Task: structure prediction
Amino acid sequence: MMRLQVPGYELLSQASTLNYSFSGTGVNITAALARFGHAGYLVSTLPANAVGDAAVAYLQKLGIAQAFIRRDGHYVGMYFLENGFGARPSRVTYTNRQASSFNTAAEGSYDFHSIAKNIDVIHFCGITLAMNDTVRQQMKAFAKAVKENGGMVVFDCNYRPSLWGEDGYEKARQHYEEMLHLADLVMMNEKDAIYILGMKTEKEDRHDQLVDLIPAVAKMYNISVIAGTHRSINGDNTHSLKGFMYKNQTFHFSKTLAFSVYDRIGAGDAYTSGIIHGEIEGFSPEKTVDFAAAAGMLAHTIVGDTPMSSEGDILRAMTVSLGDIQR
Result:
């Protein structure tokens, strides 16, 4: 997608200029993993025009390989970002999304069986699942192809009410359940279990709900790893983040990290990339969840959606005092 950001803290109705960049969950996670030393590919369709050329150039700068990107159609999805300040939250306004080259790519546009032979890990997002029936069928077909070739399927629930519309949870449930049955690693928390899957718990505290529901989800859908975060906003406008990872029938929790926020969008993708990296590299669950939480924290300090921290940056943030000058 194209991100169109209002400079500073102006409202869209006040601004006369916009800064653009390209992002999206797939871009963010692939770029983050590329920075960790993995070969990262994006499977998508970009418009066959100058906007598509600009997007491709931007992806090249992020280290994302172009082998599985098609060029067709006329549009890329866009969103406008207004930065929040104090009591006023940041605001994202989507436009032109359903008409994008990706969302209008016909069934059969991608050779998933050939692509799957070159992939060890594939990441899918609930935002993509919300697009349209053709995209949903493509996602499921791609996931099945990767599974058949012995790859790992990662699914991030990432539910967006504005994309599913009225009665969204009911519309989404069947599609989420199908993806969960295909997934090896899932990013979610107790809210997803309660609202998307319709699960019940008598617990009232978020932590207790998490501990009650996540093992049931893992067992029901035969998921190897479930991970996610709990976030809170403090009275001084700093944020606190605590990561969790459920693996081998055991919960592992990160330290609670408190930090100031420069740019929040994409920080969840940084956390997800940390979990994936830890699983690929064979980190212990304790190291993986601490690494992912530190990656998420650092992403809040960098402008733009895409995580830009190296593995060394994140390992350093896990062990040294924050805010020191690096010399």
Q: What stands out?
A: The chain has a mean pLDDT of 93. DSSP finds twelve helices and 15 strands in the chain.
